[in-house]
Specification:
This is Thioesterase domain-containing protein. The protein is an alpha+beta fold and about 170 residues long. It has a single domain, classed as Hotdog Thioesterase (Thiol Ester Dehydrase, Chain A, Roll). It is built from 4 helices and 6 strands. The longest helix is centred in the middle third of the chain and has 24 residues. It is globular and about 45 Å long.
Length: about 170
């Protein structure tokens, strides 16, 4: 029997939300290596295209990294600003989703993303760190810092809103 992609996506979403719910629980320890593997394997959108891999997830901080590739570059050889914005929205949404899950079994989506580019990046590894400014019941504000070899290269501030998950509505 052929596997239904929608069923597999639902299964991945369920596993991913389970990991985030566990990490969001009061007093919870950060995600384990196995839990990070579940999350990293479950993303099929921007995270996959970017090569963004989550390296640490807790209720107070999300960290990820990616190797800069040719497809991330502007024609003149610097990382495209949209890459930074996608990285910021990805890690901020994960952090905000943990707060949303802890409150009401919802997830978070970005509504504003302000990214400042400080230093051009042309190669190597980009490390991304998200920390909460404020996590509320309706929206969250997340600061994101991006580094290369411990040098700050870009900063973002992302506002998210909470939305019901598809799973919560039985889809």
């Amino acid at each position: 029997m052929k596997e239904n992609k929608a069923d597999k996506g639902s299964e991945n979403l369920s596993e991913m939300l389970g990991v985030l719910a566990r990490c969001a629980a009061p007093g919870a320890k950060p995600a384990t290596v196995a839990e990070l593997d579940v999350l990293n394997a479950g993303f099929a959108g921007p995270e996959q295209w970017l090569g963004l891999r989550y390296t640490s997830i807790s209720s107070e901080r999300v960290e990820a990294s990616m190797v800069v590739q040719q497809c991330h570059m502007q024609p003149w050889g610097d990382v495209h600003g949209g890459v930074y914005a996608m990285c910021a929205e990805s890690v901020a949404s994960i952090l905000a989703t943990m707060g949303a899950i802890a409150a009401s079994k919802t997830h978070a989506v970005g509504v504003t993303n302000s990214t400042e580019f400080l230093t051009p990046v042309r190669s190597g590894v980009l490390d991304v760190v998200a920390t909460p400014v404020r996590q509320g019941y309706v929206s969250s504000l997340i600061d994101v810092a991006m580094f290369q070899r411990d040098k700050l290269v870009a900063v973002s501030r992302v506002r998210t809103i909470q939305k019901p998950t598809q799973q919560a509505h039985g889809r």
